[in-house]
Specification:
Length: 346
């Protein structure tokens, strides 16, 4: 029986293509809205927060705008009075109905910020409250774990960052190839069964990445926790080096997520080799030939440059999570104790 999660993973290429087609024409509007803004702040929770991490890195490395992740509690609990007159605040929520995110957007506007909503529902409260809404075109997502709503948020992050970049269309050729790469990875599913079988042998799992794919690593960790009910730690390899690597041994499965190129690839290759030498079964997702060799088990990633790779690299990881959940006798469509719309404070 095909799960809803598997169906929605397969729907992602078309959903991302629709989203890119719908949002690219809004680049001029985004540029006008952000005129005079020196800073970009992202507000999100859960999978949306992991998408925002990609947005933050792409904003700084490609659009050259200082960016950061905001703490919603500064608005909702501390009610801090900040001067955000030079900030573009981007609030991300697949449903657009998470009260904490809506309240933070309203607070930011009251503090003088220009506001953007990224949501899958154009009629949501978040979309209606924002100066401009980037509405993703994922369609209805029925499985509780976010798959196509997550990857369409990544597409929205790419459109947003490129809109504010010196050359807005510079990444378009690669962005337009992303759905094709997503479809290829989903169809081939290379290494997915083997990776799921390896992870099933242990209760101790670590996920690491860095840079533009750091959000992908955290998303993989989140999906394993919420869908497979395994405690998982997600760390950048820089943080991993600063102490936590000491606990790595033969009882741990380490998943390392890497881009096919870029300045962090060599470091991730070294980390994969180090984890393997310490006894961990190391599953490498993405990377290049040297990275694959450094890993115990390699799961191929997309043929896309680092700036665009996050849109597709997560696909084989999603397949691993869905496969592992079924192997463990769990329902990946409806993880225990979770619902589609999460409220931080009931």
């Amino acid at each position: 029986m095909t799960t809803q999660m598997a169906t929605e993973i397969a729907e992602q290429p078309e959903a991302v293509a629709r989203t890119l087609e719908a949002l690219k024409p809004l680049r001029a509007d985004l540029a006008r809205l952000a005129e005079g803004c020196r800073h970009v702040l992202f507000v999100a929770r859960g999978s949306s927060d992991n998408a925002a991490i990609y947005g933050r890195y792409l904003m700084e490395t490609h659009a050259h705008r200082p960016a950061a992740l905001a703490a919603p509690s500064v608005a909702t609990h501390y009610h801090a009075n900040l001067d955000l007159s030079d900030a573009l605040v981007v609030c991300v929520s697949q449903s657009g109905e998470t009260k904490e995110i809506i309240e933070t957007l309203t607070w930011a506007a009251d503090c003088g910020a220009r506001t953007v909503a990224v949501t899958n529902d154009g009629a949501s409260a978040l979309a209606e409250a924002a100066d401009l809404a980037l509405v993703t075109h994922a369609g209805v997502e029925r499985a509780v774990p976010a798959t196509k709503t997550y990857t369409t948020q990544l597409a929205a992050m790419a459109v947003l960052a490129t809109a504010l970049a010196p050359k807005p269309t510079e990444l378009d050729e690669d962005l337009d190839r992303a759905p094709q790469e997503m479809a290829r990875l989903a169809a081939e599913a290379a290494g997915v069964e083997e990776a799921a079988a390896k992870i099933a042998l242990t209760q101790e799992t670590l996920v690491s990445g860095r840079g533009l794919l750091f959000g992908t690593a955290l998303e993989v960790a989140l999906k394993l926790e919420e869908t497979c009910l395994r405690p998982v730690r997600g760390l950048s390899y820089a943080d991993l080096r600063h102490g936590p690597i000491a606990v790595v041994d033969h009882d741990i499965v380490a998943i390392v997520v890497a881009p096919p190129d870029g300045p962090v690839l060599d470091g991730l290759t070294e980390v994969a080799a180090d984890l393997r030498e310490r006894g961990a079964a190391t599953i490498g997702i993405g990377g290049d030939e040297a990275f694959a060799t450094a890993s115990t088990l390699h799961v191929p990633g997309p043929d896309l440059p680092e700036a665009v790779a996050p849109l597709a690299t997560v696909v084989p990881a999603q397949l691993i999570v869905e496969t592992l959940a079924r192997r463990l006798g769990l329902d990946p469509d409806s993880p225990r104790g979770l619902s589609k719309v999460t409220q931080t404070d009931e």
